[in-house]
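Support request from a user on the community tier.

User writes: "When I paste my structure tokens into the form, the page sometimes reloads and wipes my input. The last time it worked, I copied everything first. Here is what I submitted, just in case something in the input itself triggers the reload:"
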């Protein structure tokens, strides 16, 4: 799901990635909005907010919004740097950004409530979530070959509209390929919305502890991926040993 890239990657890997990390992004987006009144998984709205703050002369707020944009960009750059420099140890390339994201989510869940009355502190907490989502979005885009994006839905709805028209206007073998694309878009949209609903409901009940949920999902995703890799290698070795035993000539 996480470690397979290029030709080794298949449609099922992208579906699993979309289910887990779109759900994670949805939780963070909703919980971040409830906690800090900031959308933390994309920057489109923040560009308009930056223009508004500059036009009205609120330069302190404009500086902070500009910092959010830079932090999202920095998160994407850091994630790409890790995966690009991993070299032969590519499995460690995706682990570093995910571990950093887990740490950020745990810190926000543990200490976010202590700064409810501080505007400056909450803005920096929101900025840390934007950095984390920048890392996640870049990581998922790179791993999936720019097929899956987990932190926003604008592009997904656009692509879904294009794919739906292609589906009804195409015939032959290409229909199956378009159908797979439509299913993947719907999975991304569905689990992002599901995560948002779950995150909003949980924040109303449990407040900042909600941020532990996406952190736990990321931990499970990492261990699941590592466990599957080790299990498959173990099974492969057992099969090779069995074949050697079978092919060995019997002793007289």
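"...and here is what came back when it finally went through:"
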């Amino acid at each position: 799901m996480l470690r397979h890239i290029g030709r080794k990657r298949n449609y099922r890997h992208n579906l699993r990635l979309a289910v887990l990390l779109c759900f994670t992004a949805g939780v963070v987006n909703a919980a971040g909005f409830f906690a800090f009144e900031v959308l933390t998984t994309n920057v489109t709205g923040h560009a308009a907010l930056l223009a508004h703050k500059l036009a009205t002369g609120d330069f302190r707020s404009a500086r902070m919004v500009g910092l959010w944009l830079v932090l999202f960009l920095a998160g994407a750059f850091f994630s790409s740097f890790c995966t690009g420099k991993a070299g032969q140890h590519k499995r460690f390339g995706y682990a570093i950004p995910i571990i950093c994201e887990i740490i950020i989510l745990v810190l926000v869940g543990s200490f976010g409530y202590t700064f409810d009355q501080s505007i400056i502190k909450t803005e920096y907490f929101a900025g840390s979530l934007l950095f984390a989502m920048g890392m996640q979005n870049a990581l998922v885009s790179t791993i999936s070959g720019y097929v899956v994006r987990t932190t926003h839905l604008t592009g997904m709805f656009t692509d879904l509209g294009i794919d739906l028209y292609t589906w009804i206007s195409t015939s032959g073998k290409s229909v199956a390929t378009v159908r797979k694309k439509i299913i993947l878009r719907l999975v991304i949209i569905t689990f992002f919305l599901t995560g948002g609903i779950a995150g909003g409901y949980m924040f109303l009940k449990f407040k900042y502890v909600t941020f532990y949920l996406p952190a736990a999902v990321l931990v499970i995703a990492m261990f699941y991926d590592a466990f599957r890799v080790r299990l498959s290698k173990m099974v492969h070795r057992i099969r090779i040993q069995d074949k050697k035993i079978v092919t060995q000539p019997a002793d007289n």
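Agent notes: The reload is a front-end session timeout and is unrelated to the input. Residues 212-247 form the longest helix (36 residues). The CA atoms of residues 30 and 197 lie 7 Å apart. Escalated to web team.
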